[in-house]
Amino acid sequence: MSKRCLLGPLALLCAAALPAFGQQHADSTATPSSSKKSDPTGMGISTKNRPKNAKTEITCKNEATFDNTNSIATFDGTVFVKDPQFNLYCDKLVVYLNKERKGIEHAEAIGHVVVVQENTNDKGETSKSIGRAGKAVFVPATGEATLTDWPQLQQGINNHISTEQTTVMILHRDGQLKTVGGSKTVIVDQGQ
Protein backbone atom coordinates (compact mmCIF):
# COMPACT_ATOMS: atom_id res chain seq x y z
CA MET A 1 0.00 0.00 0.00
CA SER A 2 1.31 3.44 -0.90
CA LYS A 3 2.33 5.80 1.89
CA ARG A 4 1.43 9.40 1.26
CA CYS A 5 4.35 11.53 2.35
CA LEU A 6 2.74 14.89 3.00
CA LEU A 7 5.47 16.97 4.46
CA GLY A 8 4.20 19.85 6.57
CA PRO A 9 7.01 22.45 6.69
CA LEU A 10 9.14 20.50 4.21
CA ALA A 11 6.23 20.50 1.74
CA LEU A 12 6.31 24.29 1.76
CA LEU A 13 10.02 24.22 0.98
CA CYS A 14 9.51 21.66 -1.76
CA ALA A 15 6.68 23.68 -3.23
CA ALA A 16 8.95 26.70 -3.32
CA ALA A 17 12.10 25.04 -4.57
CA LEU A 18 11.77 21.41 -5.72
CA PRO A 19 10.35 22.37 -9.09
CA ALA A 20 13.90 23.28 -9.82
CA PHE A 21 13.49 21.77 -13.18
CA GLY A 22 14.07 25.30 -14.39
CA GLN A 23 11.86 27.19 -11.97
CA GLN A 24 12.00 30.86 -12.80
CA HIS A 25 12.38 33.47 -10.12
CA ALA A 26 9.83 35.80 -11.70
CA ASP A 27 8.31 38.77 -10.00
CA SER A 28 4.60 38.80 -9.34
CA THR A 29 4.01 41.48 -11.97
CA ALA A 30 5.01 39.24 -14.87
CA THR A 31 2.37 39.01 -17.55
CA PRO A 32 1.88 35.98 -19.74
CA SER A 33 3.43 37.75 -22.72
CA SER A 34 6.44 38.97 -20.74
CA SER A 35 7.13 35.53 -19.29
CA LYS A 36 7.41 33.79 -22.69
CA LYS A 37 10.90 32.69 -23.61
CA SER A 38 12.46 30.60 -26.29
CA ASP A 39 12.25 26.90 -25.49
CA PRO A 40 14.10 24.87 -28.12
CA THR A 41 13.99 21.72 -25.99
CA GLY A 42 10.21 21.79 -25.79
CA MET A 43 10.34 20.91 -22.12
CA GLY A 44 8.76 24.20 -21.16
CA ILE A 45 9.69 23.67 -17.54
CA SER A 46 12.57 26.00 -18.11
CA THR A 47 10.36 28.90 -19.03
CA LYS A 48 7.23 28.56 -16.92
CA ASN A 49 6.63 30.93 -14.04
CA ARG A 50 5.85 29.34 -10.70
CA PRO A 51 2.13 29.72 -9.84
CA LYS A 52 1.38 31.62 -6.64
CA ASN A 53 0.62 29.28 -3.71
CA ALA A 54 1.73 26.30 -5.79
CA LYS A 55 1.46 23.00 -3.96
CA THR A 56 3.86 20.09 -4.50
CA GLU A 57 2.85 16.65 -3.30
CA ILE A 58 5.34 13.79 -2.93
CA THR A 59 4.18 10.21 -2.51
CA CYS A 60 6.30 7.10 -2.07
CA LYS A 61 5.68 3.40 -1.46
CA ASN A 62 8.42 2.35 0.95
CA GLU A 63 9.45 5.16 3.29
CA ALA A 64 10.09 8.83 3.82
CA THR A 65 13.05 9.77 6.02
CA PHE A 66 13.76 13.24 7.40
CA ASP A 67 17.28 13.89 8.72
CA ASN A 68 17.06 17.26 10.51
CA THR A 69 20.72 17.19 11.54
CA ASN A 70 21.94 17.05 7.94
CA SER A 71 18.89 18.81 6.39
CA ILE A 72 18.09 15.90 4.05
CA ALA A 73 14.74 14.36 3.13
CA THR A 74 14.71 10.98 1.38
CA PHE A 75 11.72 9.37 -0.34
CA ASP A 76 12.08 5.74 -1.39
CA GLY A 77 10.07 3.34 -3.50
CA THR A 78 8.00 4.34 -6.52
CA VAL A 79 8.26 8.07 -5.84
CA PHE A 80 5.76 10.39 -7.51
CA VAL A 81 6.03 14.18 -7.37
CA LYS A 82 2.91 16.04 -8.48
CA ASP A 83 3.57 19.70 -9.13
CA PRO A 84 1.60 22.33 -11.08
CA GLN A 85 4.53 22.60 -13.52
CA PHE A 86 5.41 18.91 -14.02
CA ASN A 87 5.09 15.35 -12.76
CA LEU A 88 8.18 13.39 -11.72
CA TYR A 89 8.49 9.64 -11.27
CA CYS A 90 11.59 7.89 -9.90
CA ASP A 91 12.72 5.09 -7.60
CA LYS A 92 14.26 7.41 -5.01
CA LEU A 93 14.27 11.15 -4.37
CA VAL A 94 16.81 12.84 -2.09
CA VAL A 95 16.22 16.51 -1.23
CA TYR A 96 19.09 18.55 0.27
CA LEU A 97 17.97 21.75 2.02
CA ASN A 98 20.29 24.76 1.94
CA LYS A 99 22.18 25.80 5.06
CA GLU A 100 19.59 28.42 6.03
CA ARG A 101 16.83 25.79 5.55
CA LYS A 102 14.89 28.30 3.50
CA GLY A 103 14.86 26.28 0.32
CA ILE A 104 16.48 23.44 -1.50
CA GLU A 105 20.17 23.34 -2.33
CA HIS A 106 19.61 20.52 -4.80
CA ALA A 107 17.47 17.43 -5.33
CA GLU A 108 18.49 14.09 -6.82
CA ALA A 109 16.01 11.79 -8.54
CA ILE A 110 17.53 8.33 -8.85
CA GLY A 111 16.46 5.25 -10.81
CA HIS A 112 14.01 5.18 -13.73
CA VAL A 113 13.56 8.95 -13.72
CA VAL A 114 10.70 10.24 -15.86
CA VAL A 115 9.63 13.90 -15.98
CA VAL A 116 6.37 14.69 -17.78
CA GLN A 117 5.04 18.11 -18.63
CA GLU A 118 2.20 19.32 -20.78
CA ASN A 119 2.94 22.45 -22.78
CA THR A 120 0.76 24.75 -24.84
CA ASN A 121 2.19 26.27 -28.02
CA ASP A 122 1.37 29.68 -29.54
CA LYS A 123 -1.60 28.13 -31.39
CA GLY A 124 -3.10 26.84 -28.13
CA GLU A 125 -2.28 23.22 -28.97
CA THR A 126 -1.20 20.98 -26.10
CA SER A 127 1.73 18.60 -26.38
CA LYS A 128 3.48 16.43 -23.86
CA SER A 129 7.22 16.63 -23.22
CA ILE A 130 8.96 13.72 -21.53
CA GLY A 131 12.49 13.56 -20.12
CA ARG A 132 14.01 10.23 -19.07
CA ALA A 133 17.27 9.25 -17.37
CA GLY A 134 18.78 6.97 -14.77
CA LYS A 135 19.53 10.01 -12.60
CA ALA A 136 18.58 13.68 -12.58
CA VAL A 137 19.99 16.44 -10.37
CA PHE A 138 18.06 19.71 -9.99
CA VAL A 139 19.62 22.93 -8.67
CA PRO A 140 16.99 25.63 -7.95
CA ALA A 141 19.50 28.48 -7.58
CA THR A 142 20.73 28.06 -11.17
CA GLY A 143 17.58 26.54 -12.64
CA GLU A 144 19.73 23.78 -14.09
CA ALA A 145 18.78 20.12 -14.44
CA THR A 146 21.46 17.54 -15.26
CA LEU A 147 20.34 14.16 -16.59
CA THR A 148 22.74 11.21 -16.71
CA ASP A 149 22.64 7.47 -17.43
CA TRP A 150 20.96 7.25 -20.88
CA PRO A 151 19.28 10.70 -20.78
CA GLN A 152 16.68 11.40 -23.44
CA LEU A 153 14.08 14.01 -24.25
CA GLN A 154 10.90 13.73 -26.31
CA GLN A 155 8.59 16.55 -27.39
CA GLY A 156 5.22 15.45 -28.67
CA ILE A 157 5.32 12.29 -30.73
CA ASN A 158 7.86 13.37 -33.34
CA ASN A 159 10.86 15.20 -31.88
CA HIS A 160 13.45 13.23 -29.89
CA ILE A 161 16.93 13.61 -28.47
CA SER A 162 18.50 10.32 -27.41
CA THR A 163 21.96 9.71 -26.07
CA GLU A 164 24.48 7.13 -25.00
CA GLN A 165 24.78 5.80 -21.45
CA THR A 166 27.72 8.07 -20.55
CA THR A 167 26.27 11.23 -22.11
CA VAL A 168 25.36 14.12 -19.81
CA MET A 169 22.33 16.25 -20.77
CA ILE A 170 22.01 19.70 -19.17
CA LEU A 171 18.77 21.69 -19.34
CA HIS A 172 19.04 25.39 -18.50
CA ARG A 173 16.36 27.74 -17.18
CA ASP A 174 16.55 29.89 -20.32
CA GLY A 175 15.51 26.96 -22.53
CA GLN A 176 19.00 25.98 -23.66
CA LEU A 177 20.01 22.34 -23.83
CA LYS A 178 23.50 20.90 -23.96
CA THR A 179 24.63 17.31 -24.36
CA VAL A 180 28.18 16.23 -23.56
CA GLY A 181 28.86 12.92 -25.26
CA GLY A 182 27.18 11.07 -28.09
CA SER A 183 23.63 12.04 -29.02
CA LYS A 184 21.11 11.72 -31.83
CA THR A 185 18.45 14.34 -32.56
CA VAL A 186 15.35 13.65 -34.68
CA ILE A 187 13.21 16.62 -35.71
CA VAL A 188 10.16 16.04 -37.89
CA ASP A 189 9.20 19.07 -40.02
CA GLN A 190 5.44 19.26 -39.83
CA GLY A 191 5.34 22.41 -41.95
CA GLN A 192 2.51 23.45 -44.18
Average pLDDT for all residues: 75
What percent of residues are in strands? over 45%
Helical fraction: under 10%
Instruction: State the CATH superfamily name.
Output: Lipopolysaccharide (LPS) transport protein A like domain
Give the count of helical stretches.
1
- In the CATH scheme, the class would be Mainly Beta
**Which fold name fills CATH's third level, the topology?**
lipopolysaccharide transport protein A fold
CATH architecture: Sandwich
Structural class: mainly beta
Radius of gyration: 16 Å
Describe the protein's architecture and organization.
This protein is mainly beta and 192 residues long. It has one domain (3-186): Sandwich (lipopolysaccharide transport protein A fold), CATH 2.60.450. It is built from one helix and 13 strands; from the N terminus they run βαββββββββββββ. It has one helix spanning 9-17, and strands at residues 3-4, 57-60, 63-67, 72-82, 87-97, 104-120, 126-139, 144-148, 152-155, 159-163, 168-171, 177-180, 183-186. Strands 1, 2, 3, 4, 5, 6, 7, 8, 9, 10, 11, 12 and 13 form a 13-stranded antiparallel beta sheet that branches. A hairpin with a 4-residue loop joins β7 (126-139) and β8. The longest helix has 9 residues, at 9-17. The radius of gyration is 16 Å and the shape is globular. Mean pLDDT is 75; it is low at 1-47.
